[in-house]
């Protein structure tokens, strides 16, 4: 039942499969790594940039009104709804740290001063001293862009009214 011919067929099957696999790898290398530094391959296309555009500063959005105007008309109830995005990592109760520090009394508090929270990245204190409304407004727009190196992984709030509403809500939580 189990003779040398059966064993030969099994070994030949494995060798044939391995050969097909190696041919597939070789074909894929030829298709996808043509310009990887092997031989003299000319670039297929290039994008020409006008002179001086590569070093241009990003444009500041002209649509953002001053923070003071937005805070004057901020809606605390809408800020509570926006806080739902923050709730995954932050708590509002004093001393109740989670992934991030508690946010009770954050408006006006020194950066890195939440008691009992020691996992600050240090990048925030390089950019801000106190969490006033302007600092929070700028930071909440793009946390990683405003303070590179921060451990906060939130993408930010692009809508100026959402940021102002959230700041008003955070300011109202501590009386």
TrEMBL record:
Domain Cytochrome c, first and last residues per copy: 74-174
Q: Does the keyword Cell membrane apply?
A: no
Keyword terms, alphabetized: Electron transport, Heme, Iron, Metal-binding, Transport
Where do transmembrane segments lie in this chain? none
Q: Which Gene Ontology molecular-function terms are recorded?
A: electron transfer activity; heme binding; metal ion binding
Q: Which domain of life is it from?
A: Bacteria
The record, for InterPro entries, names: Cyt_c-like_dom, Cyt_c-like_dom_sf, Cyt_c_1A/1B
The molecule here is called C-type cytochrome
Species of origin: Palleronia sediminis
Fetch the PANTHER family from UniProt: CYTOCHROME C (PTHR11961)
């Amino acid at each position: 039942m189990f003779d040398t011919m059966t064993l030969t067929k099994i070994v030949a099957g494995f060798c044939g499969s391995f050969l097909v696999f190696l041919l597939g790898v070789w074909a894929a290398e030829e298709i996808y790594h043509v310009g990887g530094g092997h031989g003299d391959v000319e670039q297929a296309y290039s994008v020409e940039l006008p002179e001086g555009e590569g070093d241009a500063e990003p444009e500041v959005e002209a649509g953002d009104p001053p923070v003071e105007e937005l805070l004057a008309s901020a809606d605390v109830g809408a800020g509570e709804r926006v806080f739902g995005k923050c709730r995954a990592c932050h708590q509002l109760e004093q001393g109740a740290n989670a992934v991030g520090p508690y946010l009770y009394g954050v408006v006006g508090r020194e950066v890195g001063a939440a008691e009992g929270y020691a996992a600050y990245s240090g990048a925030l204190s390089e950019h801000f001293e106190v969490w006033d409304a302007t600092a929070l407004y700028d930071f909440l727009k793009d946390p990683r862009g405003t303070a590179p190196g921060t451990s906060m992984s939130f993408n930010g709030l692009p809508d100026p009214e959402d940021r102002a509403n959230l700041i008003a809500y955070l300011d109202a939580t501590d009386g």
